[in-house]
Amino acid sequence: MKAIHLPLVTHLHHHDLDPNKNRVPVVYAYQDVKTSKKSNRLGEKLSNLLNIQKNDPTRSNLNDIHEDKANTPTMSPKEDISDRWCDIHGVQEWEGLLDPLHPFLRREIVKYGEFAQATYDALDIDSFSEYCGSCMYNSHKLFDKLGLNKSGYRVTKYIYAMSQIDMPQWLERSKLTYTWSKDSNWIGFVAVSDDEESRRIGRRDIVVAWRGTVTPSEWYENMQRKLESIGHMDSKVEHGFLSIYTSKCDSTRYNKSSASQQVMKELKTLVEFYKTKGEQVSLTITGHSLGGALALLNAYESAANFPKLPISVISFAAPRVGNIAFRDELYQMGVKILRVTVKQDLVPRMPGIVLNESLQKFDDLTGTLEWIYTHAGTELKLDVRSSPYLKRGFNFIGIHMLETYLHLVDGFVSSTSTFRSNAKRDVALVNKACDMLVDELRIPTCWYQLAHKGLECNSYGRWVRPKRHPEDIPSPTREQLL
Length: 482
Hints:
This is Fungal lipase-type domain-containing protein. This protein is of the alpha/beta class and 482 residues long.
């Protein structure tokens, strides 16, 4: 019998804050070309076990398809959904709209997802920058810089957050001695629909977008696995999430008031202003990963302060946030929650991988358990394997990335249909900060970065770090005036 050669090669790339490095853990398996039929069968079993994508002839023309789309617009005309905004807002819990996914709803989910993505794309994560952890642009030019100038929304407020517990993986810090802030980070923004967009969607829509963590692989390890009371009833939420949302300190420049206080003050101003004008107003809160958790806390507080305001949450890859009482209170207050998840993503299973809502089946024996975590809302579950453009295998970072989620939403038709061929969103966006696209597309990994990594050639021919424009420098005074 011939010897079986089955080398299993594993490449684990370091998870680094530098977006220009390959920080994706990928497992490759290959077989010797001289293996026997038995070894081939063994290789197939190993490939299935590791979920490795084998050569697939149906993928051979992917690059041709991608190039054919290069000359087509990434956006189709916006539909008037003013007579359906209640359904799309989740008044009927999105019944009949998710499977198959209604085109109007798909477009709105992507719209809010792109607001959440903006909180990553505009974040200064250069540890050698004195403004590391801030937004690179002022609020008036944010959407223009990120290609969202046709979104129909304008930013009205930036939100800053800090934490009084050690959660280093969400807080970006500069290596320099003198920086804009040693304690706070830019965590999101408030925006409002303009007149044209408000007519299209049927109401004045206020949006709050929350940022998640830059390195999602490690935030769970730093999380405090502890439930803390919120409100006046039995509701409890994860201690680390609540700390980021409510922490403040008089000695800081940007968090003399907490993220909670900043956003609620702005919401109160906007809601009162537009209601005084006799307009229908809604609040839509979005976020990815940690941002999805903060979105739920924000929705809970907003519902308590604006009891008659339609409030919905559209989150992506959000972890569990609180206990069953917290979930039930959200329902009682009328908050509508749509959770977009990916089957292969581990973050939505945290915290409470063991002690979670599945224990409810034992209520007769245990009674109501106040100390277990549970998800809230309606779930739209996607599958990486549905897209012919995505690599297979265990790729924790790539699967969790918001751009991967938006790609899958854009291509999802139904649980029984294939990836839609007329998907509009640019496939190349998936690889902005990871390595998820199949090699046939020839899209570089982690390609999203500043030109020359932020350096500029000055008049003397020296490559230097340019000064930020004065209006883009974070200023607590300026933010208070916006």
